[in-house]
Amino acid sequence: MLAAATIAILVVMLLAIIRCIVGPTLYDRILAFNMFGTKSILLISVLGFLMGRPEFLDIALVYALINFISVIGVLRYSDSAEFKVAPYKPHSTKEGEE
Amino acid sequence: MNLVIEIISGLSLLIGCFLCLSGGVGMLRFPDFYTRMHAVSVTDTLGACLVLFGLMLQSPNGLVLIKLILILLCTLFINPSASHALAKAALRNGLLPLEGKPDNQGGNKPSKL
Amino acid sequence: MFLGLYNYWIVVLLMMIGFYIVIAHGNLVKKLVGLTIFQTSVFIFYITVGMVERGSAPIIAEGISDYSNPLPHVLILTAIVVGIATTALGLALVIRIKEAYGCVEEDEIQKQDQLSEDES
Amino acid sequence: MLTGIYGLLSACFFVVLDAVDVAFTEASVGAGISGLLMLAAITITGRKEAPKRHKPFLALFVVLVTGSMLIYGTLDMPYFGDPEAPVHQHVAPRYIHDSMEEVGVPNIVTSVLGSYRAFDTLGEVAVIFTAGIGVLSLLSLPRRRKKIKSEEATEEQMHERHMVVRIVSKALIPFILLFALYVQFHGDFGPGGGFQAGVIFAAAIILYTMLFGLDTAKKVFNPALIQLLAAVGLLLYACVGVVSMLNGANFLDYNVLADDPVSGQHIGILLIELGVGITVASVMLSIFFNFDGRRQAQAEIQAEKQQSEQEQKLKGEQDVSRTL
């Protein structure tokens, strides 16, 4: 059962990587990245059980935290430069959209 | 008793993996960012919970169980809030949802917000 | 017969990707990315060398007799953190170059250097 | 963006290869901080790359030749996972078999890092410290006196926008800090140690900085104090060595730190791991603060420039209308 779970998770990770490379917008990529992170948490926990060394769970926990931090970081930095929105006036663009 | 636990854990692992897979397929096949996000964030959270729950039932000792619960809590908190922040940022930066076709039931209404 | 060597081929592939990025791209940030990839290939090389078949993670526990070689792990563990520190230093240099020259393209910087030399 | 995935992927890879400690480090460094620093640099330097002028055939050729030569070289290497390979014959068996009696720490990686190769690790920490100093001297900004108004507006913006994330993070940050301490002091028994703990600690504070703004974070974590701490960590490490020398042993030989050698080793490893953790955390933090400070300063300059341009434009229009 664990082996099957590992294979399934690996397949999902592959799909996420494809979306990450293809992804038309930046946000698709971040989304795929987030998903990839979650899947690797699962993968590491399952692998730990598969190998009989559950010490690996620490790493999974670190992933869960670091993944969140990097998603937030990407969001913060993408706000200011990637889209050429005037750096510190986000309201103006929003109003322009609506 | 042992067998029952084994079966339950196997089942939850299976369902979790199925959810993850469907999320992955949805991520690849759905037409625009918001639908993809929907596919991913919903299935991801539940799938991860189920897989971790399945592992929890198999855990050999208390420390492992506690760590698994911590991971579960983390995913439960982090995943939705990251998705929320992502969607908000995308909307704010002017990424519009794909609008329904005119002949659809959704009509011409933009699906904003 | 040579299939047992596939780990080295993967390492070489990664290393060459990094190398290519370093040579072919003019953008200094891209060059640093290439260097990072190169670096990771070296990490992977060390770790694969230290791997032992049927070995387990080098944390002593009961009932396990085979462990992987801990020495490469130690070397790489420190190397990763040192690597990020040096990468940060490189990025800092790039930022200063950007402020001084207004760009991070190699050709442009050389051109500007040439110009200022000609003037003086 | 792909750097993050790359870090995660290589960390998974290390897990498969039994290198738990390395995976731990790569997970915290490769996935988190390195990607963030790259992104910060990209936001400063601009995202677009100039089109290439010359064709990359020459580069491709060089790369291919080097690659094929390297692959030719691998033919003599030992097979993957071969227990008879030369690497496993030299000092590794001693580490694996004797470290439990000599050092008394279950995690062999920690005992090698902290005890057998402590001198090497001291050098690495010194390199990190030097890199931190380098970044500081390159990027540190003179202290600004006046507060620019646009900045405050952003703070408000961040608050409005990321309310949910903020609240979740508020709950999460203490947990991350606690976890970093756990990693720091549990490094003897499981995967972990000073390097990883330092990075995780820094990551928590970086999360705080990103959500609450650089200035708030600088009020909470004083940059001068952080720079001081970086030096203190390194000094702590070196002092352990000096103390063991004063007790009549070699530099960084912990056997003499307590009555019996094993507990002496324990004390020594604990102390130097603490030193490593402090140095790594504070160097990473000061690097991040400086990068972010640069970015903010640049954004402010741009905003000011835009404002002045707009004003000039307005003035010009007024002039035109007046002349009309």
UniProtKB/TrEMBL annotation, chain A:
Entry superkingdom: Bacteria
Keyword entries, A-Z: Cell membrane, Membrane, Transmembrane, Transmembrane helix, Transport
Main location: membrane
Its membrane topology: Multi-pass membrane protein
InterPro entries per the UniProt record, alphabetical: MrpF/PhaF-like
Transmembrane segments: 30-52, 59-78
Family: Belongs to the CPA3 antiporters (TC 2.A.63) subunit F family.
Official protein name in the record: Monovalent cation/H+ antiporter complex subunit F
TrEMBL record, chain B:
Pfam family, one: PhaG_MnhG_YufB
Keywords for the protein's UniProt record, in alphabetical order: Membrane, Transmembrane, Transmembrane helix
Transmembrane segments annotated in the record for this chain: 6-27, 39-57, 63-82
Name under which the protein is recorded: Monovalent cation/H(+) antiporter subunit G
Organism: Shewanella electrodiphila
From TrEMBL, chain C:
Keyword set, alphabetical order: Cell membrane, Membrane, Transmembrane, Transmembrane helix
InterPro entries in the record: CPA3_antiporter_subunitC, NUOK/Mnh_C1-like
Annotated TM spans: 6-25, 32-52, 72-95
Organism domain of life: Bacteria
Subcellular location: Cell membrane
Topology with respect to the bilayer: Multi-pass membrane protein
Gene3D superfamilies on file: 1.10.287.3510
Family classification: Belongs to the CPA3 antiporters (TC 2.A.63) subunit C family.
PANTHER family: ANTIPORTER SUBUNIT MNHC2-RELATED (PTHR34583)
UniProt-recorded name of the protein: Cation:proton antiporter subunit C
